[in-house]
Write a structure and sequence with these properties.
Blueprint (H helix, E strand, L loop, with lengths): L6 H17 L11 H16 L18 H13 L8 H14 L2 H13 L4 E4 L15 E5 L2 E12 L6 E7 L10 E7 L5 E6 L8 E12 L3 E2 L5 H14 L5 H18 L6 H28 L8 H23 L13 H14 L9 H12 L5
Length: about 375
């Protein structure tokens, strides 16, 4: 692998770094799992879009810059380096966006992608249901065709960002006689449609990062279906590949956490046990290894390759890396790591580590539970018997 950046890539990095220095908010935004913070983050998405940084890999005609995946990785490095806000529309830009690029019609791309890049439409996921979590083939929510509309009845749960989002995307069973992976379609649903009820689900920190969605005779135009009727499973698996494999969790996210962990250790080295040093070093090396592997994957995709079942390896690696780094941070902080109050030295940093730890506990569950990912690796990569 050639680890040298081209002059064009270096110029792009300089442009991104200068723009971020001029535009990243000086004060941390409120949590996007609150109504006020959600709108603050929507405003940041609009600022990004003003610089054509909403999603740099999209074509210019759809709100992007036509950047390749290496340039996207460079953008992410500079984004995290600048301490820019989290992306409230990550379900849209990182998951639905690439899916629309692959399966959407020209009309659907023009309708949805520019508004997504601008933060005008914030998207939620509509995958899991009671009894159908990691096993999406068990989905039962029905979308029965009635002329030019689907009539949706059922329930979704653990819908990320659905409390305040504008739209959701998900799988719905359009053939009521079908079972398992068959007879499902991928449908885009505006969340202000009559018949939809949202019930917030609080996270460990009390903020409503998720919601239950109840559908009672919800009418959605057939033109909101992505791909052919009954093709939903294949499309959803492509979306899951984006979620597990490359775009949702860029390596810069973990490299920045590893850097903060080293800084935390340096401040407290005198009072922590010697073994913690090895944990910090391993966190740094694992974050760098994940970055190098991602660059390799990006280079392969640029050359015409595809992300396959190895996306499950990525998902396990980054989710367990995130959790282990935050566990190490809390071991360094000791009892102080449980503080959420202000008025003490390092209070903001302590709160950030604790909130990060609580979120990291979900990593081995969302985007497909790691137990399921290990089964996929065993069966489809290693060809082991079921």
């Amino acid at each position: 692998m050639d680890l040298q950046y081209t002059p064009k890539q270096q110029a792009f990095r300089a442009e991104v770094r200068a723009w971020m220095a001029a535009h990243v908010p000086k004060q941390r935004l409120k949590s996007y799992d609150t109504a006020e913070g959600f709108e603050e983050h929507r405003g940041w998405e609009r600022v990004l879009n003003s610089g054509r940084f909403g999603m740099v890999t999209w074509p210019e005609s759809l709100g992007g810059r036509g950047a390749d995946l290496i340039e996207w990785l460079i953008f992410e490095e500079e984004y995290y380096r600048a301490g820019a806000p989290g992306r409230v529309n990550q379900n849209g830009i990182f998951l639905l966006g690439p899916t629309l690029m692959e399966y959407g019609t020209a009309e659907q791309k023009a309708r949805f992608l520019p508004r997504m890049a601008a933060g005008d439409d914030i998207w939620a996921q509509g995958w899991s249901e009671p009894g159908a979590g990691s096993d999406m083939a068990a989905i039962r929510t029905k979308a029965i065709r009635d002329g030019k509309h689907y009539v949706i009845n059922g329930q979704k749960t653990w819908s990320t960002r659905a409390v305040f989002a504008d739209w959701c995307f998900g799988l719905f069973r359009t053939d009521p006689e079908s079972s398992r992976h068959h007879g499902m379609s991928f449908i885009l649903v505006p969340l202000d449609t009559p018949g939809i009820t949202r019930r917030p689900i609080p996270q460990l920190d009390g903020e409503p990062g998720f919601a239950e969605l109840f559908f009672d005779d919800v009418r959605v135009p057939v033109e909101n279906r992505l791909g052919d009727e009954g093709q939903g499973w294949n499309i959803a698996m492509a979306t899951a590949g984006f979620e597990r494999g490359l775009m949702l969790r860029s390596p810069a996210r973990f490299q920045e956490t590893a850097k903060r962990l080293v800084q935390l250790y340096s401040r407290h080295e005198a009072r922590v046990s010697p073994g913690v040093r090895d944990q910090v070093l391993k966190a740094w090396m694992d974050a760098e290894a994940y970055a190098l592997n991602t660059y390799m994957t990006a280079s392969r995709l640029i050359a015409g390759g595809k992300i396959g079942q190895e996306a499950s390896l990525n998902k396990i690696f980054w989710s367990e890396l995130d959790r282990s780094m935050h566990e190490t941070a809390l071991s360094i902080l000791g009892a102080r790591g449980e503080l959420l109050a202000s008025g003490v030295d390092e209070a903001d940093d302590i709160t950030r580590w604790l909130k990060g730890f609580l979120f990291s506990l979900a990593g081995p569950i969302y985007a497909g539970a790691n137990e399921i990912q290990r089964n996929i690796i065993a069966e489809r990569l290693l060809n082991l018997p079921r």
